[in-house]
């Protein structure tokens, strides 16, 4: 038989019993996982106080990224791309953007989750800046187990159905585990709840309306034509806009301008509440197969292997496309002068109209294959036991994304082109177009005025595909090197050869700009990483007064990437036990994050951003800051400039609006890695007089330089005008009317990021009583500082305590659980607390309880401070005498609703002003497990 050895704890490759306390590692075992009532690993990890909201959430239904629909981990508010995910100490597959989808890891084979809240690049390489999530799977299982769970939200939607089956056999020399899992989660709709029914929440039900479903036109006649428009004081011409009358929801003769009325951008009569057609949370189905096996080849050598295959399907819906003449790219899209439905015959007429009859549907499919084979063993050398392992791992993700509901611009031009009359019917004038299926489109008629034949002709369904592959070869060895007076000096070392390659193929029609889908270019690239590391654990003192143990751990790793060259990262740790009850620990760690394949090689793509233009004369910084106003004027922005949203309306609050034209974002092959320094210091106190009590307190500080980031539109404009940093002003172009015509959000190594805070843990298992066993678990995080610097020399933004995009930078996050068990019964009560956050004001006198406080996000005065919220969960369980286990529970038992935040962005969050970290409703579930 293989000789028993000590375990390896996340954060170190050295096997031992004392090393586990040298790093701040949080562990959730199988019982704690089941007590959450959740079925997705990403959702479970997000419950931890040290975890934050990732860049992509399940609510991100507007994204065109293949990452949408997955579940991701984000530690220390540093982003999912800076959190390394391991399975049994080995990297899991990731996307082109560097995100690891935790939903592809079957929960049924998870034995425990270890979260290292510390930098670990010297041990694991790139990405371990925020920390490491290590999923430990079961390696021995006897018999069979079936587990099912059914859950539903209090509003009767968002049903969750989950089932797993696991079978295993073990002997003295071998073990095998096989299993399958199925998860089905129904989507949630924005229209179902008052919190999400309106674009800006229930307090502003009449704001945030988008382009309407009834046809509108822009007077196409020459500037200066009487009745066609008007001149502004600055001499610019504004053409009149009209919308077809629609009494009772039925449009009249669209060819007769007498059937139109002037379009009032400040009225909702001709607009549309897009949230009524939106998914709040995507529906998801997940099927997975998995298998693990071990075989003792000799007494000292074990062969092992693991394979998983998972398929995830995600479905979401967004409102019909806001089609307008500008949607036609550079060539524009107009109603032809000879079109029978044109109210301005003889003119190419611009139009606008949302195609509400054809909501945009997105179906995403992700297929993940992971397999690894290897061997591990032990041998004796120099009177010490050594352990070695060699592993080859292959990971592959194939993802596709199919979207319907967009418009085929080639077909739309023909359908809006010249018409003629044949046999009393209005048809496309071009015979070749008619032969190709062309049907005239009365785009101005509105809902019910477009036959199905037209939708079939002008509708577009396109598919993009993405593939990532990783080949990874790893070898490690660890053991005792020599005996010192205080103990054994232990060492670990290893090498790794990893080849990452990714490819993205947008639909050719989308890529060519022939549809209204966001255009993007192909991606194809990769890199090879060769790495080697060494780690030493050196005992200095032992069994002395005030030095029951004193030891240091040092590690170094050299990484060479074909994309950018070599990097060396070191880490130093100290642990000191002045007496048996108290452990003091500290670390200093260098880290890095390599640019992802998408960072380096992705083609440029389009994006529609929501932002506040600081040059807006009413709500922008120019309204109150003379210096900003002067910079805007110097840039040629009219003094009375007003930002307009997608519907053409002037923005109505400091929340800004979505730009009518697409911006561009893209990769940068010259990117360098991000670099980091992590410092931690803490203690673990387990007093002898209180058996079962453990108290932990840890301080952390992480500094990141050369941050790889896409710079969002609002930040670019603020950096240029508010912070007066001219290096940003070349990233955008304004038209003569002051409006942003184009903007570049491409990636760059810019600025820095710092986070600093404290973790406090208190775990106490009470002495057993006649009423059962009671355990209290409390884990909290306090965020002292979170500072961003946009570029060298720029003013820092201190954002701790703010709602920042989809990420709440809470000063305090805390979980408190009370667990009770008695005979076959048990119960767990959990309280999850989120402290209040600062948000942007709705306006200077509405929802603005701190109007004079400088907003660190925007750089102008006005802060709305909103209170904290606590969610309470209850689970009851019963162990049946026939090896069955029943659990029932309610999450958010009191139905609490958190505050709404206007800083929540649609990018990642999907449904502002809802905070994606908060519970949306009560959630009821019942589960049953049967062992055979």
Automatic annotation (TrEMBL):
Compartment list: Cell outer membrane
Span of the signal peptide: none
Membrane-topology annotation of the record: Multi-pass membrane protein
Family stated for the protein in its record: Belongs to the TonB-dependent receptor family.
Pfam family, one: Plug
Keyword field: Cell outer membrane, Membrane, Receptor, TonB box, Transmembrane, Transmembrane beta strand, Transport
Chief localization: membrane
Organism: Luteibacter jiangsuensis
The keyword Membrane appears for this protein: yes
Descriptive protein name: TonB-dependent receptor
Domain TonB-dependent receptor plug residue range list: 20-132
Domain TonB-dependent receptor-like beta-barrel positions: 343-893
